[in-house]
Write a structure and sequence with these properties.
Oligomer: single chain
Helix content: 55-70%
Order of helices and strands: HHHHEHHHHHEHHHHHHH
Number of strands: 2
Strand content: 5-15%
Number of domains: 2
Largest sheet: 2 strands, antiparallel
Structural class: mainly alpha
Shape: elongated
């Protein structure tokens, strides 16, 4: 039963609009100061961060060129046997070489004499050396120079040493910009507990004393959900996005050549979007406890809520379906988790001993 107050016992705790603005200014200054401090610390770790955040992109590029290498190698193996298309045995052998042995292949032309020197045929097989280098008559023939002096060989090299599996920079200042962005990322992660605390502190300034207890309850959960969302985006969603986008390069016959600046901007935006969106159950609990929404309203509007979740997921993620789905599904689960949180979390008491509904 909702308790009706005869008078406002907390009149002395009320703040004017100007006082609220002053509280907001103070919270923003403290949050910005914490961010600047930790960004300066992040400058010392920016290099390691840049190397670490390239890992998903390098892995995506490696998988792209491995898939491309398997198709090309299977085609070459079939051509050696005089077939126009590879069979299952060619594909199995190509898969073994590329995936198990970790090699990619490439056809190159090499001088016959130089090839014999590398293989040491002149010492052990003089007849073969004579046939390979050609006689005076063959040298004077009318065959093209490439056909006469060069031979096409199939070379193998380690896939992880492929220069294409490297992230590039195209401008002189891009490395410096990336370094600063990486330091900013470190600063945001390290300062996030303080930033969340200052934000909740500002929110608490507009609450009654018995409502301020929620700040201390929400803060650790808020931080944990933010980190969980960011980790999900970086370690799970990134791989799905790359696996979805890179095949379009193969479809169009284009080799990907990603820039480190663009990739880092992408890495910054997506985890932050996931971390913020994962605050949903706490926001639901907060709004329910201060009386804006009820559990019944959450349950009756669940279809509209899911539609809003998918719409926001589309806006907060890149233009691919995987990232939208991988954000919307956890948020849908968190929505119903928020309802459960509102239902099972004990409610606070008023100064009169009644439950605040």
């Amino acid at each position: 039963m909702r308790y009706q107050y005869n008078e406002d016992l907390f009149e002395h705790t009320k703040m004017t609009f100007g006082e609220h603005l002053e509280e907001l200014r103070g919270a923003l200054i403290k949050a910005l100061s914490a961010l600047v401090f930790f960004v300066l610390i992040g400058l010392f770790f920016a290099g390691d961060v840049v190397d670490g955040i390239q890992a998903p992109l390098r892995e995506g590029l490696l998988h792209f060129y491995q898939d491309q290498g398997k198709r090309e190698l299977a085609q070459r193996l079939a051509a050696r046997e005089g077939r126009t298309s590879p069979n299952d045995a060619d594909l199995a052998e190509a898969t073994r070489i590329v995936e198990e042995e970790g090699f990619l292949s490439e056809e190159r032309y090499i001088d016959r004499k130089r090839l014999l020197e590398i293989l040491d045929f002149k010492e052990h097989r003089p007849t073969a050396a004579k046939e390979a280098t050609g006689t005076k008559e063959s040298q004077a023939s009318s065959r093209p120079w490439r056909e006469k002096d060069l031979v096409k060989v199939l070379l193998y090299f380690p896939a992880d040493k492929d220069p294409r599996i490297r992230v590039i920079g195209l401008s002189v200042h891009e490395a410096f910009t990336v370094w600063i962005k990486a330091a900013f990322l470190v600063g945001v992660l390290l300062a996030s507990p303080l930033i969340f605390y200052f934000i909740w502190e500002f929110v608490a300034a507009g609450l009654y004393p018995h409502e301020k207890h929620y700040v201390h309850v929400f803060l650790p959960f808020s931080l944990a959900l933010f980190i969980a969302g960011a980790l999900l985006a970086f370690y799970a969603v990134m791989g799905f996005i790359l696996d979805f986008l890179f095949p379009f390069y193969a479809l169009l016959g284009i080799d990907p050549d990603p820039r480190i600046g663009e990739w880092l901007s992408f890495v910054l935006i997506l985890p932050v979007g996931f971390g913020i969106s994962f605050q949903l159950p706490l926001v639901m609990l907060f709004l329910e406890r201060i009386g804006i929404f009820t559990i019944q309203s959450y349950l009756s509007k669940w279809r509209i809520s899911i539609l809003v979740i998918f719409t926001l997921s589309m806006l907060l993620t890149p233009a691919d379906p995987w990232s939208m789905i991988l954000m919307a599904i956890p948020l849908t689960a968190l929505y119903f988790g928020g309802i459960a949180l509102c239902h099972y979390l004990p409610k606070q008491k008023t100064p009169f001993g009644n439950t605040v509904e």
